[in-house]
Amino acid sequence: MLKRVTSMVNAGAMSGSGNLMDFLDEPFPDVGTYEDFHTIDWLREKSRDTDRHRKITSKSKESIWEFIKSLLDAWSGWVVMLLIGLLAGTLAGVIDLAVDWMTDLKEGVCLSAFWYSHEQCCWTSNETTFEDRDKCPLWQKWSELLVNQSEGASAYILNYLMYILWALLFAFLAVSLVRVFAPYACGSGIPEIKTILSGFIIRGYLGKWTLLIKTVTLVLVVSSGLSLGKEGPLVHVACCCGNFFSSLFSKYSKNEGKRREVLSAAAAAGVSVAFGAPIGGVLFSLEEVSYYFPLKTLWRSFFAALVAAFTLRSINPFGNSRLVLFYVEYHTPWYMAELFPFILLGVFGGLWGTLFIRCNIAWCRRRKTTKLGKYPVLEVIAVTAITAIIAYPNPYTRRSTSELISELFNDCGALESSQLCDYINDPNMTRPVDDIPDRPAGVGVYTAMWQLALALIFKIVITIFTFGMKIPSGLFIPSMAVGAMAGRMVGIGVEQLAYHHHDWIIFRNWCRPGADCVTPGLYAMVGAAACLGGVTRMTVSLVVIMFELTGGLEYIVPLMAAAVTSKWVADAFGKEGIYEAHIHLNGYPFLDVKDEFTHRTLATDVMRPRRGEPPLSVLTQDSMTVEDVETLIKETDYNGFPVVVSRDSERLIGFAQRRELILAIKNARQRQEGIVSNSIMYFTEEPPELPANSPHPLKLRRVLNLSPFTVTDHTPMETVVDIFRKLGLRQCLVTRSGRLLGIITKKDVLRHMAQMANQDPESIMFN
C-alpha cells in the first residue's frame, strides 16, 4: 500500500504539473470535471491539488486575511471528518433504535407507548419480575390485543399471520421507495464504493436522495426479518455523508482525487458505527475498500471513526453502555487442543464462502439476463413471504439476526434462561457464579441443537437469494449468523465430548471433572469470523473487528487461525471475494491490486488500433479547423485525442481530453470574436502563419497535457498493468522512437486480463 502511495506521489511530481495545468490561469465553467461512468485521471488531480496548495501558500504571505484563509483550508479536512463522524454516528443510532422497535412491532405492541420496543416497554413496568422479564402486562401480542387470547391454536395462527403481514408491508414499502426515489439505494453498496474509490464516477450514487432513502429503507428491510444486515449499507450511508460534506468545501468538491480521500475516511466511520469497532473500521477501509490511502488519510480516518463511535456511544441505542449488541465476556481460557475444531470451523467458513459466492453470482446473473430482473417488487415480496412463513415457527429464525448472534455468543451463566443453557445442574454445586463447571446437556440443549441445524440450513439457502435484490442488503450479519450457528453446535459437541470422556488423552491434561473447560460461545464467535472471512476474504481487519465487537481480546489467536484457514480454503476455489465478484458481474472498471498478471504479452498486443481497424483518431498541432475537430468529436466517443505534429510524421506532442475540448470551443465561440467553423485550431506557443483574409485562429494549448504517460510497443503487459494500478491511469500512449503507434485504455487492460483468464472480455462495460 505504501509503495502504491509513494509511486503516485512521485508520479504526480514527474508529470510536469506546471505545463499540464497552465489552462487554469484562464478557467472556464466545468473545466476539470468528468462525465458519468468515466474514470478520473489521478495524476491530473494530484497535479491540480499541488498547484492549488502552492497558490494558497504563496498568497498567505500577502496579508493576514489570506493567512487566515490558508489556515481554514488546512483545517477543512479535520472539520469534514468531524461532521462525517457526527452524522454517521447519529444516523446509525437512529437506525438501531428504529430497527429494535419495528422488529418487535411484528409480534406485538406496547400499550403505554406504542413507540416502545418490547424491552423498553417492560423496563417501564413496575409489575415485571426478573424471572418473567420478557412478559409484562403493558406489552401485548397481537392475539391478546385483537381477540384477547394469549394461548392456543387460534392465537398462534393470528400472531403468525400478523408477523407475515408486517414483514410484507415493510418489504413492500422499502422496495417501492428504492424503485421510485433512489434506485442506487439498493444492495450493499460496498462493490460500488470500492469502484468509486478506485477513481470511477457514478453520479448520484452518493447523493442526498440516496442517503435519505437508504437510511429509511434500511430500517424497513432489517425489520422485515429478511436474511440481511445493516452493516454493509451503513458504509454506503457514511460515504453519502462524506460526499455531502465534501461538496461544502471547494478543496474537495473541485478535486475528485481529494474527494476520494474523504470517502475512504467515511468508509472507516461507517464500519466503526456498524460494529462499534473504530480501529477495525480504519483497517477495513485500508484493507478492503480504499485504492489510494496516504498516511494523512489514515490519521483522518482514525479521527472520523473515533467521532462516529463516540456519537453512537452517546446515543446508547442498545441500553447496555456498549457500542454493539453482542458484547461478551468469557471466563475460561482456550486450550491448545481446541485449535483443531477452530481450524475445522475455518474450513467450514471457506467452503461456505465459496458456495455462497458461486450460487449468489449465478442467481444474480440469471436475474440480469432473464425476465426475473423486470419484476423487482414481486421478487422482494416473494422472498419476504417465504422467509416469514419458514422463519416464524423456529424461535432462532423468528428473532432478529443480531439478537440470534448475541444469544449464540453468550456464555451460559447462572441467570441465563435460554434453551441453549438448559443443562442438568448438580444440586450440590457450590461454585462462584462465573465459574460454572461443564455439565451434561438437558432436553432444552438437544431441542436447541436441532432447531439450530434447521435454522442453519434455512439461512444458508435463503441468504443466497436475498443478497442482491433491489433493496438495501448487507452480508456481514447473515454470514456471521451462519458461522455462529455452526460454531455453537460444534462448541456444544466438544463440550459434551469433554464432559463424558474427560479421561481421553486429548482432554486429560486440561479438562478435569468438575472444571469449566469448553466455552461454546467462543466457538460461535470463531465460526462467525470464519464465515465472514470466507465470503469477504478479509483477514487483519476481520480479526480486529471481531475482538472489538465482542471484547474477546485474549481470543485473537483462535480468531486468526480461523480467519487465515477460511481464506486459504476459499482462495483454493477462487481468488474473488463477494464484492469483487459483484464488481465483475456489473462490468465496472476495477483493477484489483490483489490480482496477479503473469502472462508474457506486450503493449503492442493490446493497444488500439489493431490490425484491420481504422487508424487512430488524432489531432494535429496547427492544421485542423474548429469544424474538423467538432466533426471528429461528434463521430467518435473517445475520452480524448493524442495531438501530433502532423499526420505524416505522427510525432507525439501531447494529449487533449474530449470534455475539455468541447468546453474550450464552446467558451471560445461565446467569448472571443472572430472564432468560426473554419478557424484554425493550434496547440503551439506561437500561431501558425495564415493568409491575411483567414479567420481568427483559436489557441488551445491550455487544454493540452504536454506530458502524457507513454510506453514503448515492446513494454511487457505485466509492467503496463502495474503502471495502471499504481498510478491510476485512464490511458497511456504507445510510441516507438517518439512516433505515436496507438493507445491503451483502462478498459483495454481489463479486457485483456479477462481474456487471458478465459473470461468474457465484453463483460467490461465502462472505461
Task: Output the keywords.
3-stranded mixed beta sheet, 4-stranded mixed beta sheet, 56% helix, disordered N terminus, transport, 767 residues, transmembrane helix, mainly alpha, single chain
List the helices and strands and how they pair.
Blueprint (H helix, E strand, L loop, with lengths): L1 H13 L2 H4 L21 H18 L4 H42 L2 E3 L7 H6 L15 E3 H6 L5 H29 L8 H8 L10 H16 L7 H16 L3 H4 L2 H20 L2 H12 L5 H21 L23 H31 L6 H16 L3 H4 L2 H9 L33 H24 L9 H25 L4 H4 L11 H17 L3 H11 L5 H18 L4 H9 L16 H4 L12 E2 L3 E2 H10 L4 E5 L7 E6 H14 L8 E3 L15 E2 L4 E2 L4 E3 L4 H11 L3 E6 L2 E7 H11 L11
Parallel strand pairs: 3-5, 7-8, 10-11
Antiparallel strand pairs: 1-2, 4-7, 5-6, 6-9, 11-12
Task: Describe what you observe in this structure.
This protein is mostly helical. The chain is 56% helix and 6% strand. A 4-stranded mixed sheet has the order 3-5-6-9. Strands 4-7-8 form a 3-stranded mixed sheet. A hairpin with a 7-residue loop joins strand 5 and strand 6. Helix 9 packs antiparallel against helix 10. This is Chloride channel protein. It is found in: Endosome membrane; Membrane. It holds the Pfam family CBS.
TL;DR of this structure?
56% of the residues lie in helices and 6% in strands. It has 30 helices and 12 strands.
